[in-house]
Amino acid sequence: WDETHFGKMGSYYINRTFFFDVHPPLGKMLIGLAGYLSGYDGTFPFQKPGDRYEQHNYMGMRGVRLYGMFCAFLGSCLVPFAYLTVLELSKSLPAALLTACILIFDTGCITLSQYILLDPILMFFLMGAVLSMVKCNSCANRPFSASWWFWLSLTGVNLAGAIGVKFVGLFVVLLVGLNTVYDLWDLLGNLSLSLVMFGKHLLARVLCLIVLPLALYTAMFAVHFTVLNKSGPGDGFFSSAFQSQLIGNNLHNVSVPE
């Protein structure tokens, strides 16, 4: 059912047709990009569930063929992500293998990952954020090292990705936020750590976990509004001044007073 929505929105990006949706744009932009790179021309109408794709090259968005695996590829990444997260937390190989097997044979995970949906993209960034957070915690004994900066920054990137696909990504932002507060509180109680060094820790987290995700989230919308420059079904949700910038709109290039 949802392929009729998100597949259609991927076509909108390929055709640069403006639309409005309740979710942030990253997931649909990535679906459109996967379709474009795998040869889909954005002409399938996506009118109702169950319509045959016929000659339309849709497989790149779903992700079955090697040259265009996208949703299925991101869904398959959940298995190593879960394995590495549990291995890092428990230091137990059997526990990590059991976790990976549970995901490999999970019917819901397999089903969600084989269609043109936002769910595998969202889960990829959610689990990526948790893995990055856990890896960063494991580098706590060598702060400001290259690996510490890498995992801290990657956590911020994954947070932006999660919230950029669906607003439910706020829950992993909350999880990372609570972990960061706990970490900073622990550092503040360390009497061998100077206030200057604590300030550096605080600044590093502000930069990587607040400033970086906000910058990336804003950049997603900048790309969204730059790509979608043609009139479409989303025009009516925006002001006349905005509609005057859309090619093909009745108000295109019309002077609209404030």
From TrEMBL:
The answer on whether this UniProt entry bears the keyword Transferase reads: yes
Its membrane topology is listed as:
Multi-pass membrane protein
Membrane-spanning segments: 66-86, 93-115, 121-137, 149-182, 202-223
Q: Which residues form a coiled coil?
A: none
GO biological process entries = protein O-linked glycosylation
> Which molecular-function annotation in GO is an example for this chain?
mannosyltransferase activity
Query: What keyword terms does UniProt attach to this protein?
Result: Glycosyltransferase, Membrane, Transferase, Transmembrane, Transmembrane helix
The ArnT-like N-terminal domain covers 1-229
Compartments where located: Endomembrane system
Matching entries from InterPro entries are given as: ArnT-like_N (IPR003342), PMT-like (IPR027005)
GO terms under cellular component: endomembrane system; membrane
What Pfam families does the entry give? Answer: PMT
Q: Which domain of life is it from?
A: Eukaryota
Q: Does the keyword Aminoacyl-tRNA synthetase apply?
A: no
The record's similarity note reads: Belongs to the glycosyltransferase 39 family.
Instruction: State the name under which the record lists this protein.
Output: Protein O-mannosyl-transferase 2
Q: Which gene encodes it?
A: Pomt2
